[in-house]
Amino acid sequence: MDRRYIYAFLGSFSLTILYIGITSLGGGVELFKAEFRELWYFLLPLIGGFGLQIWLFSHIRLYGKGEGKKEVATTGCVSTGSMIACCAHHVTDILPFVGLTAAAVVLADYQRPLLLIGNLSNVIGAIWMLDIIQKFHLYSEESRFKALERIHFGALKWHIILSAIAIFIVYLIIYNPSKINVEEMLKLASS
Asked: What total of structural domains would you count in the chain?
């Protein structure tokens, strides 16, 4: 079996297990179920996009003979950023245990924007890797990638980055987190 598929599956599976584990530790299996029902439209693309990035990264490592090492390192950073953005909202599960309850309340309100950052960085990472595959011709003539030659991923990459920034800014403008009562936050912080 092709190792790229195995790595992609293991990456997605590991991210899923990490998510289930952190959420369950923070509030039990019921919290995981409730949160998944509420956020599935962020979580499923995030998990799938992470697997896609791993598949593309594995493809570059398999076919790249030293070409684009710097670019491959960049894609690794983007993939890592996606994973961090995915799990950053779970910092709120840990903060109360270390005495930072007020910070947990504030961060909890920004769970969706953090998940959006993770999904946008998945798209950026995938396009970036497709650009590397195209730039260094890391595919055979019979490959499925041959059909993608008509798309100029180098230019598309920058359009996607600018679009992702615009989407995030608009989302933050229209996003309405629950209003935090400052007095409640101070009570939580002092307890």
From this structure: 1
